[in-house]
Amino acid sequence: MKEDNVIETKSKAFALRVIKLYQWLVDTKHEFVLSKQVLRSGTSIGANVKEGVRAQSTPDFIAKLSIALKEAEETEYWLELLHESGYIEELSFTSIYEDNKELVKLLISIVKTTKVNNGITL
Fold it and tell me: In terms of CB atoms within 10 Å, which end of the chain has fewer, N or C?
């Protein structure tokens, strides 16, 4: 993996955080439904970024990163539910939630910039 690919690095680091959160929720809180959802969507962000980086075309790149963005937005929802239902305390929630919001912002920026640079209507 290239060290200078910020979205690839950050999405993988986020996936590792989500895996640890999942393990903690299952082992400590005995929560199995919401934790599985956040695990699925939170790790899917990086998987789609990885696919996008190796895309065969610009439209393919945009499609994969758009899917990553949707997964990040879904992850936001699951994190909010876990927090508001009392499974995740404020400090832990704020930390991982802010990391997720950063991914959302990066993905929006990358998709928009790629579209503009390639003459694709927004």
Answer: C
Per the structure block, which two tokens stand in for 26? 């299952």
In the predicted structure, residue 81 carries a pLDDT above the cut 90: yes
Q: Which two tokens stand for residue 105?
A: 């912002």
Ramachandran category for residue 30: left, alpha or beta (phi over 0 → left; psi -120 to 50 → alpha) = left
* Full-model pTM: 0.94
Rounded-to-integer distance, Cα 35 and Cα 102, Å: 21
Phi, psi of 65 (to 5 degrees): -70, -30
User: Of 56, 50, 55, which is closest to residue 8 (Cα–Cα)?
Assistant: 50
The answer, yes or no, to whether residue 2 has pLDDT greater than 50, is no
Rg value, the chain, Cα:
15
Burial class (CB in 10 A: 0-12, 13-18, 19+), 39: buried
